[in-house]
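To: structure desk
From: M.T.
Subject: fold request, one chain
Message: Could you run this one when you get a chance? Sequence is below, nothing fancy, just the single chain.
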Amino acid sequence: MGEKIKDFFYTELSEPHKQRTKEILIEHPEVRKLIGRNPLSFFLILFIVGFQLIFAIILRGQHWWIILISAYFIGAFANHCLFVLIHEAAHHLIFKRNVLNIIAGIIADIPNVIPSSVSFKSYHLKHHSFQGNYALDADIASKWEAKLIGNTPFGKILWELLFPVFQGLRPPRLKEIKFLSIWTILNMIVVFGFDAFIIIFISPLSFLYLTFSFFFSIGFHPLGARWIQEHFIVSPPQETYSYYGILNIPALNVGYHNEHHDFPSIPWNRLPKLKAAVPEVYNNLVSHKSWFKLWLRFLFDPKISLYTRVVRTNRAGSLSAK
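Reply: Done. Structure tokens follow.
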């Protein structure tokens, strides 16, 4: 079955992206032209939010199993796409003004049942600035979380099903991040208010569709492999991985993760152009071609667990399990 990893992969090395960005800009200064914003993303937000609302209304009189199947094969993709657009808003890649990006993110959050857009922005920007810092990077599982889940398929399935819950329990360990703000409260009012509207004036079954869509979009679904693909170590010492499969189409190129970390100021629609402009870099990094295969590997490979992540430390160490 393989040896169970009992701790993270520790390293004293700096995160790789800042240095690689500098090197790419020296060799390929033309990639600066890709930096900018994509205001069309806002219209995509409006379209998908509208689609989810209309589809939820259509399903209000259906059997629960039809709602479940619809959420898995349709709603999950729509909600996942909205998460990607929330991610774009967090990086100010839709509008120039910060307040407009925040509003765009909150609108994209409306069908997600649980408000997360504003808080995600704070945690995610820290993830970019302090990748692998256990006290600041919310993308890394808490130690108690990794120990609880272990490396069995049952534990990993439980983690995927309850992924939003586990993420919501990470903030107490994080430093320098303010959880509550006026925008966070507004985010809660809008999303929970929309939840109440759907339940009271449309149908509890419509709300059930949105709930299933939310959990499937980031949990027990091949789309959930995105969270494994990005930073779970499959080829040390590399700690960030891209995905170049067909699901990048409905996922708005979110699989181009090395490219995104190197240039977080390039919007989703231009990331493939970045890869094409610097083939000597990105074609020589280990990447994934199938989220589905990675998803199955994560579930059934005992050598992959929530500990399979790089954590930066001041003590001597290398990319090997302690």
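Reply (cont.): Confidence is low (pLDDT under 50) at residues 315-322. Let me know if you need anything else for the meeting.
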